[in-house]
Amino acid sequence: MILASQSPRRRELLSAAGFDLEVVPADIDETRLPGEKPVELVGRLASEKAEAVRASLTSAAGDGLLVAADTIVWMGDEALGKPSDAPDAARMLRELSGRTHQVSTGVCALLLNDDATVAARSRFVETTEVTFWDLTDAEIDAYVQTGEPLDKAGAYGIQGAGRLLVRGIVGDYCNVVGLPLARLVRELADLTDDTRDLVARAIKIGGAHA
Q1: Positive or negative CA dihedral for 155, 47, 170, 188?
Q2: Tens of pLDDT along 145-157?
Q3: What mean pLDDT comes out for the span 189-209?
Q4: pTM for this entry
Q5: How far out from the chain centre does Cα 157 lie?
Q6: Which whole-number Å values give the CA distances from 49 to 20, 123, 133, 204, 206, in the listed order?
Q7: Which terminus of the chain is less hemmed in, N or C, by CB atoms within 10 Å?
Q8: Has 70 been annotated as catalytic?
Q9: What is the number of other CB atoms lying within 10 angstroms of the CB of residue 159?
């Protein structure tokens, strides 16, 4: 599989499910368009990343699969990207404190012919609701000092120390990490007419890594 993302978390999730990855990061303009809703933004960016990488190829990967994704943390119409520095991370965490926000990941999966033209495609957006505990200034300061928030959208990583900030989630945990793996594997099975054997294989391999 070609993964059009340099996210280490996406690589880890897909590798643990048994996919052999060739990482080819996409270089696109990720500027939000005027009036564009967060779920529209991540859906568009995933598609544009997939197409940008596909257009750079002369041949497909062995399994013919190319996957691109983009994740956004948002409340209302406000998108929370990666903090610019520690004070900005603390500001975001104060904003999230005691409130429910959304994490949406847009995914575009392509099945490619040998010459890298598109044989079939799947595109979807998965959204998970995340609720934070009421955070004290001491908790926020301690978390910011770990350095973990500085390269994370929304200034936290649920797979790391940031899990201690989270009161609960509604939806897919892996989606908050950066990729809705369970849905993606099923979409790939449908894309390749694999009759869900792909899902069974991913479960067996994932169980071996647990």
Answers
A1: negative
A2: 999 999 899 999 9
A3: 76
A4: 0.91
A5: 12
A6: 20, 12, 35, 30, 27
A7: C
A8: yes
A9: 17
